[in-house]
Specification:
By secondary structure, the protein is mostly helical. The chain has one domain (13-213, 224-433): Up-down Bundle (Growth Hormone, Chain: A). 77% of the residues lie in helices and 3% in strands. The protein is built from 15 helices and three strands. A three-stranded antiparallel beta sheet has the order 1-3-2, with no helix packed on it. It is globular and about 55 Å long. It is found in: Cell membrane. It is a multi-pass membrane protein. This is MFS transporter. Residues 1-414 form the Major facilitator superfamily (MFS) profile domain.
């Protein structure tokens, strides 16, 4: 692949007026997409929590809950680059319809077994693995499909909205799941996700094809996975956020596993309290999502600052003496998580060209989901070994220290500067690289 083919897409950023905060939603296809993704992400995370709680009810083991998380996210760790190649080679909408249809069938089967009261832990494990395998293709395809709907001009705004939906779903979904589990049981939460997947399929098929922008398709050739890896390693605006993300995902994005233990062992609040804790984090995430859509630019050091603050709020929640302080810390976790996640994903996407973006975003998703696959059983094991409070503090301190180290490396080397220049109220994002990336 020549340099021109992989050069970053020129992106113009402009401080939006308040009425333009969600300007991407003016596009019909993207508006449909956002509605379906909001439902799908929320119900998807609700189901993940439901099956985590179901495994805990069946076995009483936090470690097995962590294994369930690993089965959901593990396939991305091993097959992520292959999913990126598939996303670059085939039509994105067709891939998304296929993955969502498979998810709907798997979730519906598990829901029936659970509601009937005949489910076993092995059937839960099988469903988690199926969901993990579909995510290998679904995640990079969704990332690239955004550009087909909104074009270049609104790409930055759409990326922020997408990241906000994903992470809000990760915080709102558990709250919804906690309520459903307490009222009607885990089976109905799983059934809701099957229905949501059907909604996504219908929405994708009902889009106006004439308004979708033509997508670049990579031709089949040897070494495409290696090509994607080399491309990601060669760009500091992709490499450093991804390195930071590895620490955040592994140690800081396993909040559901920790909150299960807090609800059961620390505050004794059960499923209802678990839903309350998740709601507090969701409120903070909502504020963070609004703040992220109004961001004018992206600096690597500010991304590290957000990651460091995220880690500190997690550590603070681990030593919170009472529920009220714990809830405030959870709101801070939601806010800082959204600021970091949207900035990191935005700078990675806008630093890569569409012809290779599927592979780049597959690597990014591999780090997000793979990190959680490793961190799920790890944090579950540490919670049982050290106690949940100590494990929570540890899970926050590790990404905080990583953010400090990376920020110091960037400050000492001076190899990367993101510079914003004002030109008639339009601010082009330019990347200046000094020296070589070591």
């Amino acid at each position: 692949m020549d340099e021109a083919a992989t050069a970053p897409i020129p992106v113009l950023l402009q401080r939006p007026r308040w009425r333009d905060t969600f300007s991407s939603l003016r596009i019909h296809n993207y508006r449909l997409y956002v509605i379906s993704q909001a439902i799908s992400n929320t119900s998807g995370w609700a189901m993940r929590i439901a099956i985590d709680w179901l495994v805990f009810e069946l076995t009483g083991s936090v470690t097995l809950v962590g294994i369930t998380v690993a089965l959901q996210f593990g396939p991305m760790l091993f097959l992520g680059p292959l999913g990126g190649v598939i996303a670059d080679r085939y039509p994105k909408r067709r891939l998304l319809v296929t993955t969502q249809a498979v998810n709907a069938a798997a979730c519906a089967t598990l829901a029936v077994l659970t509601i009937a009261g005949v489910v076993t832990v092995w059937e839960v494990f099988a469903t988690a693995l199926i969901m993990g395998c579909t995510a290998v293709v679904d995640s990079p395809a969704r990332s690239v499909f955004v550009n087909e709907m909104v074009g270049h001009d609104r790409l930055g705004n759409a990326i922020s909205i997408n990241a906000s939906i994903f992470h809000l779903g990760g915080l709102v979904g558990p709250a919804v799941s906690g309520i459903l589990i307490a009222i009607v049981g885990a089976g109905w939460s799983i059934a809701a996700n099957a229905l949501a997947a059907c909604v996504v399929v219908v929405t994708l098929l009902s889009m106006r094809s004439s308004e979708l922008l033509p997508s670049l398709v990579a031709k089949r050739s040897k070494g495409q996975i290696r090509e994607g890896l080399r491309y990601a390693l060669s760009k500091p605006t992709i490499f450093w956020p991804t390195v930071m993300l590895a620490f955040v995902a592994t140690f800081g994005m396993n909040l559901p596993v920790m909150l299960v233990a807090f609800a059961d062992h620390v505050f004794g609040s059960g499923a209802a309290g678990y839903g309350l804790y998740s709601s507090a984090a969701a409120l903070g995430a909502l504020a963070g999502s609004i703040a992220s859509t109004r961001r004018m630019g992206y600096r690597l050091r500010s991304i590290m600052l957000a990651a460091g603050c995220f880690g500190l709020t997690i550590a603070a929640s681990g030593i919170a003496p009472v529920v009220s302080v714990f809830l405030l810390c959870l709101a801070g976790i939601g806010f800082t998580r959204l600021l970091f996640a949207t900035a990191a994903e935005s700078i990675v996407q806008m630093s890569s060209n569409r012809i290779i973006r599927g592979r780049v975003m597959a690597i990014y998703a591999m780090v997000v989901l793979g990190g959680q696959a490793i961190g799920g059983p790890l944090m579950g094991w540490l919670a049982e070994l050290w106690g949940v409070r100590a494990a929570m503090v540890f899970s926050g301190l590790v990404p905080t220290l990583a953010a400090i180290v990376i920020a110091l490396l960037l400050a000492r080397s001076g190899r990367l500067t993101l510079r914003l220049r004002m030109r008639r109220r339009i601010i082009p994002l330019t990347v200046e690289v000094r020296g070589q990336l070591g």
